[in-house]
Amino acid sequence: MTAAHVLPQPGQQDKWAERREDYALRRVPASYRKWSIFSLAGVTLGVATAMFFLTFGGELVLAYGTGNVIIAMILGAVIIGSIGYVLTRISAATGLDSDLITRGAGFGFLGSAYTSLIYTFNFVLFFAFEGQIMASAIHAYWPSVPISLIFVLIGLVFIPLTWFGITTLNWLMWVTAPIYLGFLAWTIVLAATSHTGAAFWSYMPKSVTAPSAGPALLQVLAAAIGLISMAPGAADVGRFLPTRKRTSGAIALGYVLMFVTLCVLTVLGGWFTLRFNNSTNPGVYLAAKMGVWGVLFVIITQIRINTTNVYSGSLAYANFFCRVFHITPGRQYWVILTSAIGTALMFGNVLGHLNRVLTFEATFITAWLFAVVSDVMVNKKLLKISPLNFVYKRAHTYKYNPVGVGALVVALAVALPFAFGAGGDLGKTLAPFISGAVAFAVAPILALVTHSRFYLPETVAHNIDPALPEIGTGEIDNVIALDRADSENAYEICVVCKQTFELAEFVACPFHNGALCSVCCASESSCKEVCKSEELLQIGSSASVPTGARA
């Protein structure tokens, strides 16, 4: 390209394409990270307004008593909020989502692909939970409509609603927020004026559910830990924050989100259940108390949450299939797969096994997240035995890093037998705690044993952005330079896909002999990672592309 040409900025190419993709497979550029904390909080709080949490709180209060639920929700908010804070601060600083962070936090390029499967199952699971609640409300008011038909229609309607990503999500959350708050206030008034039900604050069941599974408080906390996937979910939204707001944004999307979710709405669900004759399904009691308006309340609420579930699931699937199978049709197409699997789970009545499903699922997701947090907080910050540089491009990572992958495998090998009943009911309750503790402890041990050799490979495919180190994004607190103002000099065209991105997206690729974007690098199936070959490393060969900005 000559100096006479001006590169188009990413936003000038196709605004709707940008919104559909939402940078599902790549770092969010500085030019797109202009969202306010207020706007993004509206998206994340859409999760907190899910009917699931009313059901969750109702079932827990009936089974274990109000006191145990309140204490466990506070503890759960602190634990999950802390993990959300750590991950969101990293995502806001680097523009990376939780999956891309995992690559450089001990898992490697392909290692993190398999953790994305653990992550995406969470979203299809919650899609099914919420879908069943919506279906029960519609079926309760219109019993002539087959419930199976309602399941299918729910699965179909969320495909167009999540096609255009975070832009549509933000608009949808704020438009429906006043309606949701109005219906919620109406429900609170109905509950407060109800003359039925037990006293809430002192409520305790005559016998705690499954006493052999351990103390009631421990059982409730285990169920709460099943919601730990909300922590990486906050990070996936936090990557759209400007870097300068990374700390305040992490507090809002991490701690505030969890306290509203667990300590307010989940506890509120327990109160509703006791006031409405011990019914735990809001799809049933709202339709009974409010008629068609109750059904509308459920539908609006479920639209808010399930758009987020399908969107987040599509991100995870896009990452997995890109790396493992080199398939990149676009994030929006994985919306269809996420919705289809969630619909199948609705037919399997997953809502009927709520607490056990959450505890079992938590065994997997805590192993992943505690391995990542251990690498960030212990290996990188405390012991300083792994690089602070968060690498995410294929050219800059090993396929597998035994630190995170090994911690995950060991944790699951120890905890899964308990989850499947090897330790009785108590073992099932303890499984997620064992999984997280083992992963957290093993990650530093493996980093010491391997001398952290599997974080930064030798490669000739260096970054072309002069603001970056040759490999990776730079140390977490020194990435403010990436938040620089837009300039036509800060962009490059990919030699393969011919799309324009910020310089930070590119490596100098010797296989294509040009500037290659991170997604084309990830999906390339024929290069055999020649950039890391001994031959090129010995001669120091690289692509003859600029090492600075073009104009």
Characterise this structure.
The protein is an all-alpha fold. The chain folds into 2 domains: 1-26 and 458-551, no CATH class; 33-360, Hydantoin permease (Orthogonal Bundle). The protein contains 20 helices and 4 strands. The chain has helices spanning 10-13, 15-21, 37-48, 51-64, 66-94, 98-107, 111-141, 147-161, 165-192, 216-225, 230-238, 246-275, 282-290, 292-325, 331-347, 354-382, 402-419, 424-449, 518-523, 534-539; strands spanning 491-493, 500-502, 506-509, 514-517. A two-stranded antiparallel sheet has the order 1-2. Strands 3-4 form a two-stranded antiparallel ribbon. A hairpin with a 4-residue loop joins strand 3 and strand 4. The longest helix has 34 residues, at 292-325. The chain is globular.
In brief, what are we looking at here?
A hairpin with a 4-residue loop joins β3 and β4 (514-517). The chain has helices at residues 10-13, 15-21, 37-48, 51-64, 66-94, 98-107, 111-141, 147-161, 165-192, 216-225, 230-238, 246-275, 282-290, 292-325, 331-347, 354-382, 402-419, 424-449, 518-523, 534-539; strands at 491-493, 500-502, 506-509, 514-517.
